[in-house]
Amino acid sequence: MKDNVARIFVGFDSKEVVAYHVLTQSIIERSSIPVVFSPIVLNNLDGIFTRERNPLQSTEFSFSRFLVPYLSDYQGWSIFMDCDMLARADIAELWALRDDRYAAMCVKHDYQPKIETKFLGQTQTKYEKKNWSSMILFNNARCTALTKDFVNTATGLQLHQFKWLENDDQIGEVPVTWNYLVNEYDYREDAKLVHFTDGGPYFDEYRNDDYAEEWFAMRERMLHVQQK
């Protein structure tokens, strides 16, 4: 795939279907370069993703996200992002941050979650590198350790803490505005990709959170059709 085409994998969860479609619409509307989307849907991964669901995982794509290099045939770069996000800037800006010195790049959050439970009453797990893996730029050729078998058998911490890399020097840093955690961080007008990590506005208890009005406006545009 050509370097000027952004290849974007988005986690898909059957409990929040609308999130995928609103996120991709927000990217499409603001992108100045071609984009290709691949939803990571468990039903599409029969025979590829075989691990049983972990009771601590809050989404269906908690572990399957690490198949991105495998699904990209270990070629070029790919972006992974959680579905509960909203793009507020041109994805070409994020795509331009790719740096071949690194095997993977992400926002290196350093925080303790403010809440104990998040959407649908799920436990808010706390661990080192929390939310680093919710938006990753994969330099696929340097992520060959993420084989299908490894993703199916590795522990959650091995995956989410990037233990599949030789060391943390292989992880490049992306500005925090490209994975800005709603509620965990104070409102920022210049946030480029906001992440409703506690729960998206489509859940009633989060419908008044920061950036929620923008999310609902994008949902309306996603549903747009021109009538006769």
TrEMBL record:
Task: Supply the Gene3D superfamilies for this chain.
Answer: Spore Coat Polysaccharide Biosynthesis Protein SpsA, Chain A
Query: Out of the domains of life, which is the source?
Result: Bacteria
Q: Which InterPro entries does the record associate with it?
A: Nucleotide-diphossugar_trans
Q: Does the keyword Metal-binding apply?
A: no
Q: Does the keyword Transferase apply?
A: yes
Identify the keywords attached in UniProt to this record, alphabetized.
Answer: Transferase
Molecular functions (GO terms) = transferase activity
Q: Which PANTHER family match?
A: EXPRESSED PROTEIN, PROTEIN CDI
Q: What is this protein called?
A: Glycosyltransferase
What species was this sequence derived from? Rhizobium lusitanum
Species classification: Bacteria, Pseudomonadati, Pseudomonadota, Alphaproteobacteria, Hyphomicrobiales
